[in-house]
Specification:
about 400 residues; mainly alpha; about 0% strand
Length: about 400
């Protein structure tokens, strides 16, 4: 491509990135304002403790918007030059962020000291540490992307993929809810559960727990929940998390560049989940520890699918895309199934649903931990080894 044409194309890409970055920042701030409004309503109804969760979520959304500033900077500069190889100290910084955040959050939430100040800082640190470490693993080993492209991939996963996935999952939830209703309606016991749902006071913790205890005692409810979270959700999310790779396919990136771009997009998606899903309180530390491996799974899966897209569209190997996509869905599905099994067994004991014995719940928890650690280890090895291997192809 002639130099003038190349410069013109680069300027067009910069303009689109600036517009996309401005839209992402604006959307994040609007979402933060909406959630802040919910925090105010929660405060009026339940006081400071009730408002803390949505308040931290609102602050997290502001932080997600602020992350768009580097993209605006690099897009405005219009530089396509490769970035420098990431320094090893970034990995150390990621670990310090995570464990420092856990310590700070544990102190703030357990003692009730300055929760509105220390809580958001701790949450951002504990959520961001594993994401930074995951991106560091691939960036340290893989091909060097430009700062502009790297931030574009990451923010596409943070800003664009979550709302698309959420809309699709809400649509998929409609037939799932219908299946649950029909499954409960065909039995006398199921009808009693439906009647309890209609009469329950969901603002009462006791009624809410009793209702959930009755639901998880019904095989149709558990079966649909497993199918939805372990199959439908991975199928949807692994389809859309690579959204920031789609615009660059026409530029025919190498498979190693596509994999790395997918890793960054998956890291952004994982950050969104970690920022918004965990709730402050007594279980905050355990929730953040449990989510520490999620960025590895999201990044590895999105990297595989992004690699597959190049194989299918550029290299004319559609079966390789299918194989890589199903591998990503399988990893994601096993992770979700295991986490759901551990959560349901623990909750069943907590509410006295009688679904599982204490010994059985302990076995499920131990087995689940081993499975999650194994999946995280495989993803970690893949994030370290695949960039090098793909770069040699």
């Amino acid at each position: 491509m002639p130099s003038s044409a190349h410069d013109s194309e680069s300027r067009r890409r910069s303009i689109w990135l600036i517009l996309g970055g401005a839209a992402g920042i604006g959307g994040s701030l609007i979402a933060a304002a909406v959630v802040a409004g919910l925090a105010v309503l929660a405060y009026l109804q339940g006081g400071t403790a009730a408002a803390l969760g949505p308040g931290i979520q609102a602050i997290s959304l502001v932080a997600a918007g602020v992350l768009g500033l580097p993209l605006l900077y690099w897009a405005a500069r219009g530089s396509n030059r490769p970035a420098r190889r990431i320094h090893w100290a970034v990995g150390l910084l990621a670990g310090m962020m995570f464990f420092g955040g856990l310590a700070l959050g544990s102190f703030a939430f357990s003692s009730g000291t300055a929760q509105w100040v220390l809580g958001p800082v701790a949450h951002l640190m504990a959520a961001g540490g594993p994401v930074v470490f995951t991106a560091f693993l691939a960036l340290r080993q893989g091909p060097i992307l430009s700062n502009r492209r790297g931030w574009g991939h990451f923010l596409g996963g943070l800003w664009a993929a979550p709302p698309i996935a959420l809309i699709l999952e809400l649509l998929a939830l409609i037939p799932a809810a219908v299946l649950v209703f029909l499954g409960l309606a065909v039995s006398e016991r199921g009808l009693s559960v439906l009647q309890a749902m209609a009469a329950a006071d969901l603002t009462s913790d006791a009624d809410f727990n009793q209702l959930l205890g009755g639901l998880i005692s019904e095989p149709v409810v558990v079966g649909v929940a497993i199918a939805f979270l372990a199959a439908v959700v991975p199928l949807i999310e692994e389809s859309v998390k690579s959204v920031s790779i789609w615009p660059v396919i026409q530029r025919r990136p190498s498979v190693s560049q596509a994999f790395l771009g997918g890793v960054l997009a998956g890291s952004g998606y994982a950050l969104f989940e970690s920022l918004l899903l965990a709730q402050p309180g007594a279980d905050w530390v355990s929730s953040m520890v449990a989510r520490a491996g999620t960025p590895l799974i999201h990044a590895f899966g999105t990297g595989l699918v992004s690699w597959g897209l190049i194989e299918a569209i550029v290299n004319r190997r559609p079966l390789r895309l299918l194989a890589l996509y199903l591998t990503a869905v399988g990893f994601h599905g096993i992770w979700n199934f295991t986490a759901l099994a551990v959560a349901l067994s623990g909750f069943s004991l907590e509410v006295g649903a009688g679904v599982i014995s204490p010994a059985g719940a302990g076995l499920v928890a131990l087995s689940g931990l081993l499975v999650l650690l194994s999946l995280s280890a495989v993803a970690l090895v893949g994030l370290v080894g695949l960039p090098r291997w793909l770069a040699k192809r």
